[in-house]
User: Fold this.
Amino acid sequence: MAREARPLMGKVAVVTGGARGIGAAVAAELVHAGVKVVIGDLDGDLAVRTAAELGANAHGLRLDVSDRPAFTAFLDQVEAEIGPVDVLVNNAGIMPIGLIEDESDQVTTAQLAVNLHAVIHGTREAVRRMRPRATGHVVNVASVAGRLPVAAGATYCATKFAVVGFTEAVRQEMLGSGVEVSCVLPGIVRTELAAGLKDSKGVKVVTAQDVAAAVVGVLRSPRPEVYVPRSAGRAVRASAFVPRGFTEWLARRMGAERLFLDAAGSADRRDYEQRAAHSAPGAEETA
Assistant:
C-alpha cells in the first residue's frame, strides 16, 4: 500500500545556490507547492531577483556556502525572520573540469569547500535545529558522478562520492529521530554547469525542472536516494554485478567516457569556468 504523500504547504525551505539552474527550478517547484522558500546564493542580487519573480513566498539573500560562520548566521536569520527551517536543500555546487595534472590547488580547494564541506556544514546546522523538533528534511544534491567516475572530473567526482557517503551515514544517525535525509543524483542536466558537454548516445539529458520535480517528490515521499533520470539508477545498480572491464567498454561504446574530456577547455565553458573560479576563498587566483 502506497504511503500518503506528506503535505508541504506552509513549510519553510532553504535552497542553496538557488538563484539559477537547478536551484532556481527547485525554488520555483517548492513555491508552487505552497512552501515558503529562502534562496541563498553567492550572487545576492540575482537571488533577490529570482525570488521576486516567484512571488511573496520567496525571499532571496546572499550566501557564500564556503563561509561557514556566514552560513550559520544565514540560517539563524531565516529562522528569526521567516520561521523554523523545515527543509534544507544543499544544492550549491561547482564543476570545473579538466585533467588532474592541469588542475590548480585553488580549483581543488574551491570544489572541496563548495561541493563537500558546505554540504557537511549545512547538514550539521540543519540537524542541530531539526532533531530537537523531531521533524525536518535535508536533501543533498549529489550527482550520478558520485557513483560512476568520469575522466576529466576527478575532483568533482571525489566531492560527489563523498556527498553520497556522507548522506548515507547521516541518514543512519537520524533513524527514528523524525528527521529525513535524502540524496538526489542527477545525470547530465542542461544548465550552465553542463556548458560544452555534447550529447552522447545512451546518456539521457534531463532538465533542471526534472531535478526539481525529483526533489519535491522525495520531500513528499521520503526515500534515501533518487536518480534523475531513473535509468541512471538502473545503470549504477547494474554496474555492481558486471566486471569493471565491461562497464568501461560500454562507457566507451556510448561515448560517456569522453563527456568531460571533450568539453574541457572548450570556448563554450569559458564563462562558466570563470564564474566557478570565484566561488570559494582563494579561488580568485585561478581566474
